Structure to design on (492 residues):
């Protein structure tokens, strides 16, 4: 919804007969000039801002991937030839998910797209985000081979080419836009959307996990339901929400960029929250092993596919419930103090749970800090005219459990917003309509101190706390893509 309408199935047509397979002795120039890849060949290679030695053989392609290891040129070439075969069969293998207008506004969006590896018609899909420290995009090693194996099992697979060199937030926005594009054109693409999965390695795993935790809408995409499964390979990403998709995790025991001990902290946090998690650590492997061909990790992609299949079976009813929450918001939330360090998380969590949010700001210039799905209202809740404005066509009703003292200065608010709805320093949410409580992250759900025990009804209530001494940041904080330690500087 927040995401601008994408292109109408903006596919790059297959060429008339893309004859000729590549091999490891073929050159980079052979790849760039191949008719099957006309119009997008440069997006298959890692770097956006470099010129390539077109005489370099594909057997040396690993030299273009400084953060990766165990690159098998034969596996890479086999994946490229799969796309050539699809193009020979008249199938479209590349899709633009940004419109030309969107690209003109941000020219770097020209460096994005989706490579499509078809499975069975109507089967669920996976989107795979490769790594590269947000400096380059290692699709040739860390996504194309994955997509070949996933599609061989009958599932549809998309490989994401995101903008490199702009950090994790921009890359995650590209993933959100790509997912939105796939959902909008699911019928034309011949895919199913129920139970889809997100896969990512290193930096790409950060983007996949962020969408898994917070949804595409949080990053400018459409309000589509979150994936049934996230597959994460070797990343130091730590952020998580209270309601995570099933998660499959792999790492090498000698990974110095995303050490196993770091990944295990998130694994334990997810398990503590009740998330289904499968974790694998492989001996004698470092960072960036990709499909793991010829190593102890060989076969892990097949294990991840089986995990995804089990998650789809176990989570079908849960997924339907999530979709219903998005299509029919349970309540309308008025959030006050929304640009603060806590309030903005309250807005994000309420949207993630499927509620409609009106975010009150005193300065319209601050609206850009809020998720696009929130309806922004400018004003001051101590003024009666603002109170009347925020009610709109869905008035906020009293929650009997918000039984708090208010200073005399807020009498106008009590009269105009509704009986019993008081503004205090700690009160940040006024919820309308009788529904089950909105469950916010633990530090966010503390701080409102009612005078009496909460015993009434099933009316929603929540509040934002003041900071307490010794408190720590909640795990539901929006994900940070800025690494704080030297080994993670590459965006692993």
């Amino acid at each position: 919804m927040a995401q601008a309408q994408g292109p109408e199935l903006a596919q790059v047509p297959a060429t008339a007969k893309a004859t000729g397979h590549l091999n490891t002795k073929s050159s980079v120039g052979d790849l760039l000039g191949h008719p099957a890849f006309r119009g997008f060949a440069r997006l298959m290679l890692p770097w956006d801002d470099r010129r390539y030695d077109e005489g370099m053989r594909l057997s040396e392609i690993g030299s273009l991937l400084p953060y990766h290891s165990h690159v098998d040129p034969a596996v890479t070439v086999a994946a490229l030839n799969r796309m050539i075969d699809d193009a020979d069969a008249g199938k479209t293998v590349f899709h633009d998910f940004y419109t030309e207008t969107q690209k003109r506004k941000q020219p770097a969006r020209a460096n994005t797209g989706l490579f499509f590896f078809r499975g069975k018609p109507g089967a669920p899909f996976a989107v795979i985000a490769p790594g590269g420290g947000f400096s380059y995009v290692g699709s040739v090693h860390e996504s194309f081979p994955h997509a070949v194996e996933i599609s061989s099992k009958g599932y549809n697979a998309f490989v994401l080419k995101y903008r490199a060199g702009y950090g994790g937030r921009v890359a995650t926005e590209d993933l959100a836009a790509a997912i939105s594009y796939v959902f909008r054109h699911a019928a034309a693409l011949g895919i199913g959307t129920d139970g889809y999965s997100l896969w990512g390695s290193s930096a790409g795993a950060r983007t996949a996990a962020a969408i898994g935790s917070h949804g595409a809408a949080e990053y400018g995409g459409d309000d589509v339901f979150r994936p049934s499964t996230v597959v994460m390979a070797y990343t130091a990403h730590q952020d998580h929400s209270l309601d995570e998709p099933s998660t499959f995790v792999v790492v090498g025991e000698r990974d110095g960029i995303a050490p196993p001990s770091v990944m295990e902290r998130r694994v334990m946090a997810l398990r503590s929250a009740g998330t289904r998690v499968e974790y694998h650590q492989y001996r004698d492997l470092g960072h960036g092993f990709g499909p793991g061909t010829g190593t102890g990790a060989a076969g892990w992609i097949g294990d991840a596919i089986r995990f995804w299949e089990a998650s789809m079976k176990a989570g079908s009813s849960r997924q339907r419930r999530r979709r219903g929450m998005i299509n029919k918001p349970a309540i309308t939330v008025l959030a006050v103090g929304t640009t603060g360090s806590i309030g903005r998380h309250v807005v994000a969590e309420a949207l993630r749970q499927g509620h409609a949010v009106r975010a009150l700001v005193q300065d319209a210039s601050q609206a850009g800090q809020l998720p696009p799905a929130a309806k922004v209202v400018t004003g001051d809740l101590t003024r009666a005219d603002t109170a009347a404005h925020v009610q709109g066509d869905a008035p906020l009703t009293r929650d009997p459990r918000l039984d708090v003292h208010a200073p005399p200065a807020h009498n106008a608010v009590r009269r105009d917003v509704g009986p019993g709805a008081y503004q205090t320093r700690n009160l940040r949410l006024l919820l309308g309509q009788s529904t089950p409580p909105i469950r916010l992250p633990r530090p966010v759900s503390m701080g409102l101190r009612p005078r009496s025990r909460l015993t009434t009804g099933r009316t929603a209530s929540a509040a934002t706390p003041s900071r307490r001494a010794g408190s720590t940041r909640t795990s539901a904080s929006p994900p940070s893509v800025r690494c704080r330690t030297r080994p993670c500087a590459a965006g692993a």
User: Anything to note?
Assistant: Confidence is low (pLDDT under 50) at residues 1-5, 13-18, 319-330, 393-490. The first helix runs from residue 28 to 32. Residues 217 and 223 are 5 Å apart (CA to CA). The domain at 329-431 is CATH 3.40.50.720 (Rossmann fold).
